[in-house]
Amino acid sequence: MSESIVLTRARLKTPKAAAIAGIVFSALLITIFWLLRRSVPADPLDPGMWLATESKTVAVALNLVPFAGVAFLWFIGVLRDRLGQQEDRFFATVFLGSALLFLAMLFAAAAITGGVILVASSADPNEMINSATFRFARATGYIFMNVYAIKMAGVFMITTSTLVIYTKIAPRWIAILGYVLACVLLIGSYYINLSFFVLPLWVLLVSIYILLDNLGLQEKAV
Fold this sequence. Notes:
The chain is mainly α. Helix content is 82%, strand content 0%.
């Protein structure tokens, strides 16, 4: 096998790996948010009646968070590999930093919610309902996710859109859409209840395009 064929196949594998990781991350995160959205009221000041009825569903969602985190790390890793020598220090810092901060906020919110459920399951859930401890934990987890994590998701979308333009792994209109949605997250995420679905849906769009485009390039290479 010639060296050119080996290099061509290596270039094809990187975006394919990014696409698969992005699809897995998107599917898991959408599932997590959907389970939480149907089980936990949107109001961060709710008294916590769901602890007695929906704690198992919430626990399932929280157990999926680490898998989504691993898929997300894989996604950003293969994207950086795709960027290669084009990556500069400023871009690398913002891209990687926003991704890691988003994950940190997501894990922190999951840990706080998981702690509340663990305490409620070890005793009478009614003791936690409307208690000061529950209210503090609920509000803290809400702010972690709906303020800080969402803002970092917006920054990540901006840097990823820039990556799309640099490497041309997806059409320019996808990058422009990413910029617009990122601005929505940065400015109005606190007022939009379903804003946390924006990142996984956009990553899913990018990943599906990369995967379909990669499969087409493989057919041409063969």
